[in-house]
Predict the structure.
Amino acid sequence: MKFPKFILLVAMTLLFSCSKTLTIEPENRTVPEGYYNSAQRIQQAVIGGYVDLRRALLTNYAWMMYGEARVGDLNVVVPYQEMVASQELMADNRYLAELSDWGYFYDVIRDANDILDIVAQADDEALSTYQGNLFKGEALALKSMAYFYLARIWGAIPSAEKNDFGKRLSSEEAVTQAALWAAEAKELVPWILTNDDGIESVALTAVRFNKTAVTSLLAQEQLWLGKGQDAYDLLSNAFTAGTADSLSGFGLSNGEDRRTDIPAAPLNGSVVRMSLDRLNAIYPTGDARRASMFNISTSENIATLIIKDASVLELLPQREINLLFAEAAWRSQRLEEAKEYLSSAATGATEDYAALTEDTFGAALLLERQRMLVGTGQRVFDLIRFGEVSSYIPGFTEDDVEKGAAYWPLSASSMKGNALSQNSFWSNP
Amino acid sequence: MRLIPKPGGKVLLFLLISIGAAMSVLAQDSLRVDSMILSNRSGLENILQGNIAGLRVKNWSGTPGVQSTLNLRGLSLDPTDQSTMPLILINGIPVIASPSNVTGINPLSYFSPEQVDRIEIIKDIDRLAAYGVQAPNGALNIIMKEGQPGSIHVRGSAFAGVNFLQNMDYRKDAFYNFNTRGRREVYGSGAMIHEQNVMVDGAGTYGSYLFGLTNHGDKGIIKNTGFGRQSLFLNATYNITERLSAHFYNNLALANRNGRYAGEYSRDITLPVIADESFFMDKNRNIGLVSSMGLTYQLGSGFKISSVAGLSYEGASRDVYIPSDVLDGNIYASSAAYKRQLITVNTSLNYLRDFSDALQLDMTLGNELRNTDDRLTSVSGQRSMENGGSNYVKVVTGYNANQTDALSDHEKEKLLSFYGIWKWKYKKDLGVNMVLRADGSSLYKNKWAFYPALGVHYELKNSLKIPVTVNASIGRTGVLSRPEVYRGVLDAYGDYYGGNYLGVGQLYPAFGGAKSIGVTQIDAGLSFAILPSLNLSVDYFNKTYRNFTYQRFLPNISGIGYEYETGGALGLSGVEISLDATWVQTKHFTWTGNLNMALYKNKVKELPDDVENTSLAYLGSLSKGTAVTSLIAWEGKQPKVIGNSEPKAFGGLSNTFRYRNISASIILTYAWGANIVAESFSSRYYADRVGNDFPLKSAETPYYLVSADADGRTVYQGIRTVEDGSFLRLSRASVSWHLNSVFKKLAQLSDIEVFARGDNLLTLSKYSGINPEENITGVRRYDLSYTGTPLPSSVALGLKLVF
């Protein structure tokens, strides 16, 4: 019978020609597919990376808890501070549980990898060369920074890269990889960023990755890996008399985030403070920087930080450059040069750094980093890098540090989802 | 207030149950509404309750205008969503039938039962597959009345009655914190329920017409609330030529529902009673339109072409204002509008052919286009009194995003289908139905799904001389997954650089492998006329649902929490028994009855590997073969099945007695074997506060549920009792008297009927709450979420006139 055959033929033809009719572009709703079709939208993805980094570092005052709050330099007026300061990092407390989870840092890594894909796939017309380089550089820098934080906070960590997803990386492997990305990023980002009107903007540069910041990050990573000479070469080549006017710090812009209670003024004196005794121990009377850095209340026996720009939380301040130079010079057997850098960095200190020797230089540099970088959350990382954890964290022996005491324990979900176990210290603290 | 004296009622029930159990019925495919006991409550679903084996109509809420839960051989992973609802058709055309989330008004309340001629129940796969992915869980086809021969008839009917509360026993209503005083302020008996209908109809060689209007009002039992509906309708056919005819149907309804805070939003009525609600406002307004137009052309030589366009539209809007004395010093206002439209165009070619005296074919080939288009807009804001709000200023100006929320959404879907239905008939004994349907959906990357079915029906009466009909069928349908599954998520969570830049994260990629859930169904049944007046039918079905979409949780280094996967299988099978009898039929007295029972069992057939790391983890403690509707709680550190939220059996028993001009009918409904988990009102703890050990209370069960609050803190919720939710309910009863003889001198009056009717008159149950069907999920939560308001009883007196 011909009739049914004909119907079947017509039906099949109709079926296969209808797929187009059945495609609906969603309206007034953003979906991932096809969204990133302009420079403005791709920039939103880049900003998304910063916003996620901000969440990783600011939720529960994480950057403080991983840094100064853990050694008691700064106190954060939150209930879990004491547990952190007394190294009870596995206590049954949901904030500590959140702090020991690394998920937010991996969100940043995912964002960065997404941005790299988006930029690679973007239409030629969508991005100018400047934008393409900037966004790619920022993504690489975000990724580098996230891995660097992870390795410094937890030691060995899993990779979240497509080619070796889930592979356990030693701290050294992770930072080596991070340094490669930072090196690539350094070549892509400019010294000063331009705003949407194409005008150079100092304020914008201060909250996004710029060449100064990426160079500092890379230098930190190289120093972490013990590559003093590489760091010295990097810094000497990057920061010359010709670039002196283009330098900028880098910090996170404070703003709204509807996911968590992220502090809008993270260093506000009502929450973050230092005891007067501690202040006196760190900055002896006569140190000219005390008055410019701290509000001191003798009646309450506390010192609070003077915030020059409340809209930014500094992570890689410009003032660190000389300290990095000093460390790189020292680590590459250039003690005299190192002392000069340290002296010029530590303007206002009571000490005479010209008299330092190979043996005493390390302690002086560590102290100056503690003084000058207060509030940036680097203290514990410095102690690990200088091998001084057991000297400054009471209760930790050399053996404890050897077992991994300086790192944070792994959260339950980090262990379960990635088939990991605690290091030998935290498995039996 | 008791309508039936207790001892008398019990004897009557016993008598009816014993008689009913000994007799009964066949699987009904079509129910004539004029022969059914109607309901005082609005909602066409309520008149079906207890009448059909396998159709569960669950009266979960007493709020008038709310839809009762409908389930016809349906199973879903989420007991709170509407995906188990059968497809609702009006004159064969799909309509919007699920309540909108904005107002919650039931679209099945847009029609008066008086408009309906009959309701067809479609549950066997060889008929269902023709509806494809639209009807995985059966279909109800509501056929509206048409004009009757004659130039003009005028039919009027009206009833009025009162709602009242039973079972509001202070020892039982732990719900309301044992606060009898507060409860009395909120709930009360005696509010009006009423309805008026007028229809004009006629028919002749030109075709037929019927038009009319209805009005329904129900003040419920929550004081200062109520529901109302007005509608206008038209149903007409016009024979344009001998071969060409047109059909028009139209129903336009306005529905409104007013709510109140205490008793509806807040069920925890605390002392001192309740706050002043003078300025409170909760206005829900719906407009519902169902319209269709069809053309049928007889081509000759057995061919017929017909094309029907259907339009179903609902506009729902809600305005809420909550004054500060109710809301702890804040005032709140919101306004939301949700507009849904469904357009269908169905064109088909029908071919009838007698190949010989013995073999006949009825073939239909067609296509159907179904477009849905839903739009939602809502604005809500809250501000505190300190910022200048006041109780009676019904405007809230939010200062920033934290105070005001605005949302607008637009959702469109297209479904394109082609179908073929072949019905073969051999010698009147053997019928073979074949269906093939292809559905293309705009939801998925892989657009097309195919749904075939085959059914065989055989009457043994002629060949084997036994009055038995057997049938068997097998086929497939599907369930559409929701858009969030396949579309992916792109969201902006934070701003940056002085609020100048928005941080957008590419959070979840679209799920390219999204597809509909596949449902394979097997049916087998027999119908046995034991006596000419006694028919028994037994039907068995077995459904397997495959390829659910669920979330697979990813390791926390992935940057996203989960990705979607499809897999898993659930099974639903059951036996439906129906016994129809005419016990007595004499000149003046008839007694007919129906008993129906559905015995269902659902089970987990397959779970994804490593189920603990998926969104189906809650099923992880269920072994294969265990009911998916199991109620699971923790005892000590172990999860345990403590009951089943679905009954082992449910159904109805109806009896109708006619003596001369008087007739009396009752319908009982029952469900047996369901459990209800009643959460404790006092044993609720933060896990970290109790050392992660649930503290046992001697007066409660050792079981507890684990959840997380908005901050992610683990909460232990104790369970007070695990109860038997079985019940037997006198759902509806009516007595009517045709007074034609009294008024026979009035020539124009062709019929006059007076009736009295009662709804939900008596419930026998051991359940400690008010209504054993009130918990949607089988769990009565500590805050009464997913629990309905008390179900009222009602009695009404009415009159029907036909001129």
Notes: Helices of chain B lie at 6-22, 45-48, 125-128, 180-186, 483-487. Residues 1-28 of chain B have pLDDT under 50 and may be disordered. Chain B touches chain A through 55 residues (CB under 8 Å). The first strand of chain B starts at residue 30 and ends at 32.
